[in-house]
Amino acid sequence: MAYALSTSAPVLAPRAKLGCSARNLRKQPTAPKAARVNVVTRANAAAGEVPDMGKRNVMNLLLVGAVGLPATSLIGGFAYFFVPPG
User: Fold this and answer.
1) N or C: which end of the chain has fewer CB within 10 A?
2) In this structure, what DSSP letter does residue 16 have?
């Protein structure tokens, strides 16, 4: 960095430029894109692998029970924030 010597404060010389140059902002040429191939993925389940309604209900109850305890404690802490100290 060049400083002018005539003043006590450092001053940038005229040849030192700040900011960006328009030459660096030009878009660079890119290689042509390869042709895209459409791939359709489909998944089928066998009839024997689908759980019956009883098993689905049990799984839903387990999910609600597993999420319910942490969610209840978080909601309780959030509600306690709004209780004025007494």
Assistant:
1) C
2) -
49 touches 39 (CB < 8 A): no
For 19: left if phi > 0, alpha if psi spans -120 to 50, otherwise beta; the answer is: left
- pLDDT tens sequence across 27-59: 666 766 676 777 777 777 666 788 899 999 999
**9: confidence class by pLDDT, cuts 50, 70, 90:** low
Give start and end residues of each alpha helix (H) in the chain. Answer: 53-81
- Grouping H, G, I as helix, E, B as strand and the rest as coil, residue 46 is coil
**Using CA atoms, how far apart are residues 44 and 48, in angstroms rounded to an integer?**
12
